[in-house]
Amino acid sequence: MLKKRIILFLLIVVMLFSVMTYQSRKGGFPSSSPVAWIVNGISSALTTTTSAITRPFREISLRNEENRLLHKQVDELLLERMRYQNALLENKRLRDLLKLHDTWKGALAAARIIGRGTNYWSHTLIIDKGLQDGIVKDAAAITPKGLAGKVFNVSHSYANLLLVTDINFSASARIQESRKEGVLSGTGSTKTVLKYIPPEEEIKAGEIVITSGFDRLFPPGIPIGYISKVDRKSTGYFQRIEVTPFVDSARTEEVLIIK
Question: What is the per-residue pLDDT across 169-182, written as a single tens digit (0 to 9) for each?
Fold first, then answer.
């Protein structure tokens, strides 16, 4: 229908242009002449047709503007919803951290993660608390899920954490149920290993590993992770026990620093 209107409009324009050209060459037509009546009729029809043709375009333009405003409002509402959800999640994490703070008498400070190590093998974090906040070297960093790592470098207003998955990390640990003891070390990946468990010891996947406290760095009983793989034969005198940490450093945003 719109295509027919456009064709009709173009035909009228051509006819009117032809008549007006003829009129200008002949010096015009009397107002009472048939030709003048035809010209006036065509002009009136042209005005009506032009209005009919352009009306849909104006309506489309208005609808497009309304859609643009609606999309803008939807985007603003989605952004506000994301902010609200982030605030709820942050409040939950802080409440959990506050509860953890109340259970540890040796808590030094709650800290926020402000940076991460860039080296592939080096698993480190940077926190926003330092010497001025009472942070000391070798203090443990924990979350409501368990042990995250320890402080290995402190400056005035920030400190660096060595995560349990770092190749330079180690801690005295024991299996929670059997009470078998060993040394937990980082591997530079997302896993850790529990070393120095003899092959005759019965170790099962799924058992929980906690700190033993014998290294005098970490308080005893902090959850570290669960045993995810046991190999009794490939490492000679000791079993190779793979431990998956409870704390996911990639998702950690706050930690509690304890003595």
Answer: 999 999 999 999 99
Q: pLDDT per residue over 108-131, tens digit each?
A: 888 999 998 877 667 999 999 999
Q: Other C-beta atoms within 10 Å of 146: how many?
A: 18
Structural domain count of the chain: 2
Please tell me whether residues 94 and 121 are part of one structural domain: no
Whether the model pTM is above 0.70: no
